[in-house]
What does this fold into?
Amino acid sequence: MDDAPLCLVADIGGTNTRVALAQGPRLMAETTRRFRNRDYPALAPVLRDFLAAAGSPEIDGACVAAAGPVRDGVATLTNLDWTVDGAELLRATGAPRVAVLNDLQAQGHALGHVDQANLRMLIPGPHPRRAGPMLVIGVGTGFNAAPVHDMPGLRVVAASECGHAGMPVRTERDLRLAQFVQKVHGFAGVEDVLSGRGLERLYAFTASEAGLEDRKSAAEITAAVAEPGPARAAAELFARIFGAEAGNLALIHLPFGGIFLCGGVARAFAAHLGPMGFAESFRDKGRFSAFMDDFPVCIVEDDYAALTGCATYLATI
It folds into this structure.
């Protein structure tokens, strides 16, 4: 693998961009650097700074995972005022091969290349584990999911923007929450309650239900979930809605090969999902509840999985 071409890979989130080098499909994790998006007007100067610090190596390929829709090779970031296309990658890196993926597509291409030690089982599935489609669900600055289909010699990871579909409403409390959210945005989407800022909205809602006018950051809420109060109520609501939406997506895509939760918020919240009812809400599908046991769910604890996915994808084109 030391003779494989040197490539540049990047993962653009709503807050940070991670950049690294790869040789073929192997990520050179020791080269990874993190950049704050607010310090840069666009992606190109981030990549130029990275390459300059790395000694200006010759790059054979470049692949970027972007947290936003990609159409005709152009990514429009959902929670960041950046647009990324192949021409920009070519100018910034000089690479003859370039690709732009949705960030969840990159996570999908990483499946099978993430160390098992970085997979935390949340809901065990059938043993032995079934072959079949897989599903990645990302919760961070935003929310999204992508189905993964393996065919002979080919992996297809379909893009979506399902975080902007309507949030699940099952109870009267869910309806009050949806009405609370849409007062600000005019629409209560999944991402409005299942994301970093979504957790903050859930806290504002649970505080309001308790007769309080209070706001906390997602980090402050996560730190306070051990004590009774609005933070714990928000966390329980988050886990329940997350389980319900993951279950909805499982029924849509039938991922018998497993569901993989990724993203900074999913990882930060991993220890709370089980105790706070994620699995119960995931399985709560009426006469199809028993069927939900066919879908194992685990959390991807590898912060660089999207970079691995970019490297893996580049090695196939």
Remarks:
- The first strand starts at residue 6 and ends at 12.
- The chain has two domains: 6-109+304-314, 117-301.
